[in-house]
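Q: Two folds, back to back.
A: First:
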Amino acid sequence: KYFCEHAPEYHVMAAGSLLGVTLAQQESFPVGKVDMLRIYPMDFEEFLYAMEQESLCGILASDDHLLADTFAGKLTELLYQYFYVGGMPEVVKSFVTHSDLKDVRRLQEDILTAYRNDISKHSSKTESIRIGQVLASLPSQLAKENKKFIYGVAKKGARASDFELAIQWLIDAGLIYKVSRVNKVAMPLRFYEDISAFKLFFLDIGLLCCMAGVPASTLLLDTDRLIEYKGMVAEEYVAQQLSAAGIDLYYWSNDKTPAELDFVIQYDDAIYPVEVKASTNVRGKSIAQFIKDNPGMKGFRFSLLGYKTQDNLTNIPLYALPFRITAKG
């Protein structure tokens, strides 16, 4: 405020984690004098640039889908590397410079330890324990077939009242993304939000895999590398990419049937159902049936298949997701 009013010739930039900025007990805030910019972990497009894959970025940014499909093998390999490394700048820099997976894990563990220390610093002892329980449960929550957050997974016999503040704390600190269920897929989605049912995703896929103890061989070497973790890894990846683009995420499920949409997004003036698959096996009828039941609605499937559109359902390769957001569709 002082600089704005008495020394406007200076341009001031300040950086800090949301742990301190959001949660600190401030005496005042210079309302109207600060432009806020939220920084996210690097998305897959930024990871490719860091890996000096500018030519592949150019191909993915173009509309030449046939050409992009010819590089599917290389792009899938890089995608799996991103699953393991994630988008934290220091970790990416280390991987680009040294290609040392052990050093990647060490840095990720250091970051997670720093988060835990910050949590202890900015919260009470009781709340710190509950926050830690929520974080520790994320891998097992997301590894379930139904990824709805279950309080009993965080602590046996727990209820919503035990963890509501801890979850909100993590959301305010920018460490997790909350994806609420909607009871109806219609504009605007927020009108139909069911606050009692939601999924929680971590801010970075590499840190989540580190928390889960996913070994490098599972993601980088095995031919069936995602069999055990495919649901967790693929949905976490999509949630991170879309959230970093500023897109609010929801999901839909029907309690009367096993039908579920992994995500539902409101983009510009339209609603899009989204399905996520971690491989080329895209069997599953939920999204196809949903689009059939809602004439005129278009949907997206993110998988390892190539580009394909059929009956208002467009398949986009997982590695092309950030580039399709940039291209607005």
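A: Second:
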Amino acid sequence: GVDKVHKISIIPRGIGALGYTIQRPTEDRFLMTREELENKMAVLLGGRASENLVFGHLSTGAADDLAKATDIARSMVMRYGMEAKLGHVSYEGESERFLDVPQTMTRRHDFSEEVAREIDRAVKAILDAAFENATRVLAQQRSTLDRGSALLIEKAKLNEENHRELMGAASSRESAAQPALEGTA
């Protein structure tokens, strides 16, 4: 349920980027559903989740992806009204302007401390669910994760075709195993 992978690299790019994944949308999008945003966060948290799954700990390596996922979750709650408990309300205040330039560091909040706590809880719950989703998918596809990691170590970069072959191999193994699973039920 996410955009196709165009390129994956473990070659450091810029300051703080130890590698990257580039996805290309298959179509122009002007709207995104809650499910699409949740899937996007799970992809962003995939590196962090795989690190935890494989090594049993977390590092600072996925800090930028974590910040992006947090921004999406916060927007879901504060801007798009996608949290049932908080209702169909936008809690994102107008940013203050100085010399006609938005000052993002000084946002006006027109809600109580109690609502602020609920926003924080909702953002955390959304991120926790995305992390659990990423971890679940990676655990189910552990052999593909391991093969992909080995391929990246060998080549340093994977293109769309390499990724498609890797995922195709995973889905063909999955469908070959499916009848055996049905027979044991």
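Q: And?
A: The first strand starts at residue 4 and ends at 9.
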